[in-house]
Every structure is written in C-alpha cells, then in structure tokens.
Amino acid sequence: MSNICVIGMGYVGLVTGVCFADLGNTVNCLDIDHSRIEKLKKGVMPIYEPGLEEVVERNVKAKRLFFTTNYAQALKDAEFAFIAVGTPSGVNGEADLQYVRDVAESIAEEINHPITIVNKSTVPVGTGDWVADIIRKKRGKNALRFHLVSNPEFLREGTAISDFMNPDRVVLGSLNREAVESVATLYQPLRAPILITDLRTAEMIKYASNAFLATRVSFINEIANICEELGADVREVADGMGLDKRIGRTFLDAGLGWGGSCFPKDVKALAHMAILHGTHPQLLQAVMEINHNQRRRVVMRLRQALGGKLVDKVIGVLGLSFKPNTDDIREAPALEVIHLLENEGAEVQAYDPQAMENVAKELPEVKLCKNPYQVAEGADALVLTTEWNEFKQLDFKRIYSLMRTPILMDSRNQWDGNALREIGFTYFGIGQGNQVNNNKRD
Ligand code: UGA
Predict the structure, then answer these.
(1) Is 213 in the pocket of ligand 1 (CB under 6 A)?
(2) Ligand 1: does its nearest atom lie under 6 Å from the Cβ of 153?
(3) 3-class SS at 332?
(4) If you count DSSP H runs as helices and E runs as strands, how many of each does the chain have, helices first?
(5) Catalytic residue flag (residue 19)
(6) Residues ≥6 apart with Cβ < 8 Å to 311
(7) Average model confidence (pLDDT) across the chain
(8) pLDDT for 215-225, tens place per residue?
(9) In 3D, which of 377, 384, 299 has the Cα closest to residue 339?
(10) Residue nearest to atom 10 of ligand 1 (CA)
(11) Which of 5, 45, 218, 358 has its CA 20 to 30 A from that of 79?
C-alpha cells in the first residue's frame, strides 16, 4: 500500500483521493481553500456526487483518508503527489495554468525526498515538461529526485466513483519506465487496460477524447436539425447508426448540447493550441458553433410557438444543472437558455433537484420553484432542459390544467409527444421532424 498526496479538492482530486484510500492506500488530500477542507473534515461534501459521502466517511473512519491545507504535512511521507487543480479558460480560451504553477512551486519548496509527481489536471500538451522545469529551477543546486507522469482522468460527474473504479483504460505518460510502473501498480486492483505513452501523447489523449465526445454530440445535433426540416426522427436515426459496432450508440443523444466544466473548456483550449501552432481547427470551431446554436434554436422555436415575441411570457424551466445527477451549473445549457429568454423580456421560473442553491447565487432574478408543478403554474411554455429522472413521468394532466398556454418544449427528447398531444399540449422535441410535420398537419 502506498502513501499518496492529492492536491486540489475539486471533482477529480476529491474522487481520486477518496477512491485510492478505498483501495487501501493512505491518502492526504490537500486544498488551499480552508473552508472546503474544514467542511470535508466534518463530512460535508463540497459537491453533490452520488455515493461520495459514504466512501469518504468509511475511509476517514479507517484512518486512511486525511484532509489538510498544509503542504508540509500532506507531502511528508508521500511517494506520489497527484496534481488535480483546476485549469480554467483564460481570456482567449487557453487553459489558465496559474494553479498548476503554484502547486509545482509548493512541491519544490516542501519536499526533500524522492517522489513521483502525477498530473491529473487537464493541461495543454507540453505542460508536464514545463512543470518539471519549474521544479528544477526552483530547487537550483539543491536538486530534487522526482519523475513526472501524466495520468489524465476520464471520470464523469454524476458517476464519478464508479467511473474511477471501473475505467475503460488508464493512460500513463512518461519516458521513465520505473515511474510509470510504480503509478501502474496503484491502478492494478482496477484490472483495466493500461496504456503507456510519452508525456505529451498522454496529455493529448485527454483533449482528443473530450473533443471527440463533444463532436459526436454536435454531430447528432446537426443531424437533428436536418431531421426537423426533412421529416425524420433523430432518435431512431441515432439508434440505427448506433447498432453499427463501428459507431456505437453513446453520445448520440440530440438535445441542448454539451455543457459542464470540461467539454466547453477543453474544446476551446484544444482549438487555441491548434491556432497557436499554426493549424486550422475548423472541425473544433464548427463543433463549438453548433453547440451554441442548439440553445438559440430552442429559444427561436419557443418564440415562434408564442406568436413571435417572448416579452412578458412566463417560461417554466425544468432542470438547471448541466446534466442530471450533479449540482454543477458551469456552462449549463439551461442557464444559457434562461439568459436568452430573459434578454427577450420573458420571465423565467425554474426548478432543479440539486442545483437551486448554485443558481440562486448566479441568477438571483430567476424565480425558483419547489417542484415541477409550481414551475408549470401560469406558464406560457414549459422547457425540459436537464433530463433528471424525476421529470420523466410527470402528471401531465395536472400540468396541462396549471399552464396558461399548454406548450411543451422537450429539449432532451424524454417525453412521449403523441401521448402529450392527446392531452392537448403543443409538443416540440429535438430532431423529431416526423412530429413537427404532425404538428403542421394538426
Ligand atoms: C466529461 C467526459 O465524459 C469525461 O470522460 C471527462 O473525464 C470529463 O468530461 C472531464 O474532462 O473531466 P462530464 O463533463 O462529467 O464528463 O459530462 P458528460 O457525461 O461527458 O456530458 C457532457 C455534456 O454532454 C453534458 O452536458 C451532457 O448533457 C451532454 N451530452 C452527452 C449530450 O448532450 N448528449 C449525449 O448523448 C451525451
């Protein structure tokens, strides 16, 4: 069993630390945010992530998992230091590396024994070498024996623990065989394929993976828009494509497009890197553009359905987090839709099972409701923006009786349009061209 320090208690760092502790290692989790660490010490999770609290509690009790803000304490006996700090978007879309630099400098200041530094933060290709340089410079003549390994993380919010414990692959990038093998032993219990590459290739695998998944979603959204015009149904198109083993069905759900703390930032950063090095990332640019248009298109369709204007219309919004099972509202499609609606003079009332606290801070003008029925009350249209389970089987007859105008915009394709039309609703899905034509026929 190993002694591990994980630096940065965001999604990736916290889940990594907690899961390594659960595998039997001693893990010191560090963050410079005192209030976050104090809360974690009391068992209060800084994020909503199913299953996380139990695993934290179990490992704290077993004295394998510790939280601290003190570098010296966290690194004292560490064989591995995992860097898992944020790399937010800078002004031009580039990844901002100030937190990675701070960590590199702190490691250089605090350690006096050989160590393997493992980078899990999503960083521009070449950052591994840059981090190594920072440490070497900072140490000067008092050289530190260390190796750097890139170990990109592929876990998703909402299923983070099981993604960590059951990865499709573990990617390790380093030119030092011994260092890579020592990190590989940490992952051995997970029995996943381990791919060993050089540092820069591992860093690129992370960006390419996220960009490819975002591309699939934008691709199906573009097909959805064409389906709407041509009278086809994108859900069945995706099923038909997905049965081809070369294509597969995942990440082909048309909707409001991708959001969250990763895809938007990473696609932007990859495009920025490409431009900086003289290549033209046309595909990535189109992928981003399609994604923004998806939100605008939903608002345009609502405007059309409501007689050409949204001024003083009351729009109910179901779901605020960027996807179900998380309270994360970073780059959430729902928030962009709300902004667009408000810009056109609409009033928004909304509900989300987990993200209301975060939204109250960011969008204080939005009326937050207690449940989906309150959202429907007096609404001129209801938009499904995040496909939480609790929105899947609502009492639509009750909703019909509560709304001022019975218009449903199912922008995650979760509801049965035909059944809803029978109740009396005007129903719109995404890429359901066959149903759009039915609407026209009605
Ligand atoms: C994503 C990747 O899936 C993870 O592998 C990666 O580790 C993570 O980013 C990261 O870089 O940290 P996450 O942001 O949690 O994970 O979200 P996803 O489940 O990938 O969904 C991203 C967005 O795409 C969501 O807004 C979701 O609603 C949207 N999406 C996804 C669709 O619109 N359609 C789909 O078919 C699938």
Answers:
(1) yes
(2) yes
(3) coil
(4) 18, 14
(5) no
(6) 344, 345, 346
(7) 95
(8) 999 999 999 99
(9) 299
(10) 262
(11) 45
* Tokens (6 digits) for 382: 């209801």
pLDDT score of 88: 87
Taking CA atoms only, the protein residue closest to ligand 1 atom 13 is 156
Q: 178 vs 188, 193, 218, 424, CA distance in Å?
A: 15, 18, 41, 67
Q: Is the pTM higher than 0.85? A: yes
Question: What pLDDT, in 10s, does the model give residues 149-174?
Answer: 999 999 999 999 999 999 999 999 99
What does each C-alpha distance from 415 to 111, 354, 362, 383 come to in angstroms?
56, 21, 29, 11
Residue 442 has pLDDT above 50, yes or no: no
Centre a 10 Å sphere on the Cβ of residue 345 and count the other Cβ atoms it contains. Answer: 11
Cα(290)–Cα(215) distance, integer angstroms:
10
User: What spacing in Å lies between the alpha carbon of 218 and ligand 1's midpoint?
Assistant: 12
User: pLDDT digit string (tens) for 227-255?
Assistant: 999 999 999 999 999 999 999 999 999 99
Angle at 298 between CA 295 and CA 302, to 5 degrees: 145
Contact at 8 Å (CB) between 220 and 210?
no
Length of the chain: 442
Residue 219, pLDDT score: 98
Tokens 């979760």: give the residue: 414
* Cβ count near 250 (within 10 Å): 10
> pLDDT over 70 for what percent of the chain?
98
Determine the pLDDT at residue 436. Answer: 54
Give dist(CA 400, CA 408) in Å, integer. 10
The CB of 130 under 6 Å from ligand 1? The reply is no
Euclidean distance between CA atoms 233 and 250, whole angstroms: 17
3 versus 89: which is more confidently predicted? 3
Domains of the chain: 3-197 (3.40.50.720), 199-442 (3.40.50.720)
- What number of other Cβ atoms are within 10 A of residue 68's Cβ? 17
Q: How far is the CA of 150 from the centre of ligand 1 (A)?
A: 21
Over 50: is that where the pLDDT of 315 sits?
yes
Does residue 337's CB lie within 6 angstroms of at least one atom of ligand 1?
no
